[in-house]
Design brief:
The complex is a heterodimer.
Chain A lengths: L1 E9 L4 H11 L4 E8 L5 E9 L5 H10 L3 E6 L5 E12 L2 H14 L2 E6 L2 E8 L1 H11 L4 E6 L3 E4 L18
Antiparallel strand pairs in A: 1-3, 1-4, 2-3, 5-7, 5-8, 5-9, 6-7
Helix pairs in contact in A: 3-4
Chain B lengths: L2 E3 H11 L4 E4 L6 H6 L7 E4 L3 H15 L3 E5 L3 H5 L1 H9 L4 E7 L15 H4 L6 E5 L5 H13 L5 E7 H5 L1 E3 L19 H13 L3 E5 L1 H5 L3 H11 L3 E3 L14 E3 L7 H9 L2 E5 L5 H4 L10 E6 L13 E4 L2 H11 L6 H12 L2 H5 L8 H12 L4 E4 L3 H9 L8 E2 L10 H11 L5 E6 H4 L6 H6 L5 E6 L4 H10 L14 H7 L4 E4 L5 H10 L4 E6 L9 E2 L8 E2 L15
Parallel strand pairs in B: 2-3, 2-4, 4-5, 5-7, 6-7, 9-10, 9-12, 10-11, 12-13, 13-14, 15-16, 15-17, 17-18, 18-20, 19-20
Antiparallel strand pairs in B: 1-8, 21-22
Helix pairs in contact in B: 1-7, 3-5, 3-19, 9-14, 11-14, 12-15, 17-18, 17-24
The chains are: A alpha+beta, B alpha/beta.
């Protein structure tokens, strides 16, 4: 089973390297990893997707916690959550194929972000499964280049995982 | 406001952390620090002959004193020479702070002379590390480094400081508080879990305590003994747990594992509750995991949450400090008596230990040396061992009575550890008798430190157990590799002449009857002394569990097939 973990990290030199190196040396199998800024300056947020059948999720969490600059790790798999992946794809699109591609993009709520005589760049954000389905559909047109960001996740509802580490302005009154 | 150079700040910070001695070796990138050092006569610096020895000496110091050991090296090769010792400290949870110089900031990343990315190299083998390129960060970094090294599960921390940062000036204000929101070790242990552990132990018919390095690191020897005595539960001690309970204590059974005693391994297999504290179920202890302690519910107390549940399934996990958990547990556990169970284990022990300790073959074996050593020393010693056969015999055959008297490289298994580590032990305990025991192989890995011993007037007693082989590898070749002695026969120099070249007196012993006199002579010598014991060449360490086998399947001498525990080696 796939697990989605969210980790908060202090922005210190090497913190990403420490995390990734930890996964390598402990033999953890990480399917997707994204890192970005959060609402609080000095704190980054990492989203990880792990195959729980081949890697002990508990060990990943515990070993991450051993890193001094890791503030919090949370397994959000069982919580109601929103997971999103961002896709940019450049498809072979001669004039005759354009409208068909645009229809497909429209169905998925994707945006056409660039068009040239024989190619088109499409942007789509959605759950990883949605993106997989879209990619499968457009594959026959000829994918020339593709990139995905990996998963971002946030739990639904008003509570946050970053509570104690937020600056005052973001804390609930 | 007082302004200081970065180098002066380093010295001030060391003093603020209670450091009075460090082991090091100067070089280009750390020269500003060495320039400042004479201004601080309260900081003793011991010049080693190789940076690896500085690391092991800092470990020996820390393993004995409980204080943070400090080692210093320059950038590049100086820093990489520390790597083995840092890895050793990481595996055995030893609190050391390694300080390295780094090339000037403008050269970092440009392959400058003697540049190496030591924070990158040591990242997986340090608890944490720092590269400092701004003098304003120095006080905070030192404060955090010592805090991280000594608290929670102790471990090595490295601070790499650019040369220009050591020369830069800044205001020195040593912080009083630490702001590490991601680092909060748990000391107390969950009270409900401790209660559950107490219940399990109260009901157990055949409970067993397995005590590890955590007892010594947590200074919990007294608490361990009180707990064992109140509950009547026998105690086994892992290689690094040795000396945490006096070995002549009626409840002390000895060492488990690959070269542990048959009765101890059998006790593990028979017990119904295994209370493990400050030990991490290393493969050398457990043997084949799925047959380890198969009748037991396991209670695991460790200060590192990641160790709990890592290797074995745990019925009651407790994350906390050994001392505090034991205090609480002793309070709430029922007084009990398990003498029937202890006697049962002792019966197994009685059938075997005599042969192990007193070979009647007429050969001169290491067993004679260790037996005489134990008889003469009466528990008044500290022993540092190296790695290999002599190390296992020292663990099996010497009797340790006081905490922190057995110092060895366990997790990493670092040959060359004994001599430099013993220097650190001697510095920590200047008035005690410190013995470095090594094989002929391990001794030659760091024998350059004899010069340090002399220069610093350390009255170390050095034993070389010389069998002319890399003995443990040879034993495995004999047992598992068709007796093909590939690269294990070893020529050695005349160790007595070698010692003499350093001005160290020594004696060679080739007969069992001369052992005692040599030990007496060493003790009577005011200063360092070296004894070379030239022992029987092909003696094996027994009993033994073959690598990957179950600890139920121990064998002693393969020729002694009548012993029920013997299994044919595949």
């Amino acid at each position: 089973m796939k697990h989605t973990l969210v980790a908060l990290l202090r922005d210190q030199p090497g913190v990403l390297n420490r995390s990734v190196s930890l996964f390598r040396r402990r033999g953890f199998n990480i399917e997707s990893l994204t890192v970005g800024h959060t609402e609080t300056a000095g704190i980054s947020r990492m989203t990880l997707v792990i195959d729980g059948d081949t890697t002990s999720v508990e060990q990943v969490i515990k070993q991450l916690y051993k890193l001094i600059d890791v503030l919090k790790v949370s397994d959000v798999t069982q919580d109601p959550n929103v997971t999103r992946d961002l896709l940019l794809v450049k498809v072979y699109a001669p004039p005759a194929k354009r409208s068909e591609l645009m229809q497909l993009a429209d169905i998925f709520g994707a945006k056409i972000v660039d068009v040239v005589p024989d190619a088109m760049m499409i942007e789509l954000s959605g759950s990883p499964e949605q993106l997989d389905r879209f990619v499968d559909l457009i594959r026959p047109f000829g994918i020339r280049e593709m990139v995905r960001t990996g998963c971002l996740a946030m739990t639904r509802g008003a509570s946050t995982i970053s509570g104690p580490y937020q600056t005052q302005e973001f804390r609930a009154a | 406001m007082k302004t200081l150079t970065g180098a002066q700040m380093m010295c001030e910070a060391l003093i603020a952390e209670g450091v009075d001695v460090m082991f090091g070796y100067p070089g280009g990138a750390i020269m500003p620090f060495y320039h400042a050092l004479p201004e601080y006569p309260q900081l003793r610096h011991i010049l080693v002959r190789h940076e690896q020895a500085a690391g092991h000496a800092a470990e020996g110091y820390a393993r004995t004193s409980g204080k943070v050991g400090v080692c210093v090296a320059t950038s590049g090769p100086g820093a990489t020479n520390l790597v083995t010792a840092i890895a050793d400290a990481m595996m055995d949870s030893v609190p050391i702070v390694a300080i390295t110089g780094q090339v000037v900031t403008s050269l970092i990343g440009k392959d400058g002379f003697q540049e190496t990315d030591v924070t990158g190299i040591t990242q997986p083998i340090t608890k944490h590390n720092y590269l400092v390129t701004d003098v304003r960060d120095l006080p905070r970094v030192f404060k955090e480094a010592f805090h991280i090294a000594r608290t929670g599960r102790p471990g090595p921390v490295l601070i790499d400081i650019a040369k220009d940062t050591q020369n830069a000036r800044g205001v020195f204000e040593y912080p009083e508080t630490i702001d590490l929101p991601g680092y909060k070790p748990n000391y107390d242990g969950n009270r409900r879990q401790i209660k559950e552990a107490a219940n399990l132990l109260n009901q157990a018919k055949k409970p067993l305590i397995m005590a590890g390095h955590g007892i010594l690191l947590g200074h919990a020897s007294t608490e361990l003994r009180e707990f064992a005595e109140k509950t009547g539960i026998p105690v086994i001690t892992t290689l690094l747990g040795i000396s945490c309970i006096p070995e002549d204590h009626p409840l002390s059974l000895g060492m488990p594992g690959m070269h542990g005693w048959v009765h101890v391994n059998r006790a593990i297999q028979e017990c119904d509750v295994l209370f493990t504290i400050g030990a991490r179920f290393d493969d050398r202890v457990t043997g084949k995991l799925d047959s380890f302690a198969r009748n037991a519910k396991i209670i695991h107390v460790d200060i590192d949450p990641a160790e709990v549940g890592k290797n074995v399934v745990t019925a009651v996990p407790i994350v906390g400090d050994a001392k505090r958990v034991l205090e609480h547990l002793t309070e709430i556990a029922n007084p009990n008596d398990h003498s029937e169970w202890v006697n049962h284990i002792r019966e197994v022990q009685a059938t075997r230990s005599k042969r192990q300790r007193d070979p009647e073959s007429g050969m001169f074996t290491p067993h004679h040396v260790y037996a005489e050593f134990t008889r003469i020393m009466q528990g008044e010693f500290r022993v540092c061992t190296d790695v290999g056969q002599h190390q296992m015999w020292a663990a099996q055959l010497i009797e340790y009575m006081k905490p922190h008297t057995h110092i060895t490289s366990g997790g990493l298994g670092t040959m060359g550890f004994a001599l430099p580590a013993a220097m650190g032990v001697q510095v920590a305990c200047p008035n005690e008798e410190v013995w470095a025991i090594a094989g002929d192989g391990g001794f030659q890995m760091n024998l350059q430190e004899l010069a340090t011993v002399v220069q610093e007037s350390l009255p170390l007693k050095i034993c070389i157990i010389n069998n002319g082989y890399l003995g443990m590898v040879r034993q495995w070749q004999e047992l598992f590799h068709e007796r093909r002695y590939s690269a294990t026969p070893m020529w050695s120099p005349d160790f007595i002449k070698l010692a003499d070249a350093y001005g160290i007196p020594g004696v060679r012993v080739e007969r069992a009857e001369d052992v005692a006199e040599a030990i007496h002579q060493a003790r009577a010598t005011n200063g360092p002394f070296l004894i070379e014991f030239v022992v029987e060449r092909e003696v094996n360490v027994y009993p033994m569990v073959a690598p990957g086998a179950s600890i139920s399947d121990m064998f002693e001498d393969p020729s002694e097939v009548e012993i029920e525990d013997v299994v044919a080696v595949k």
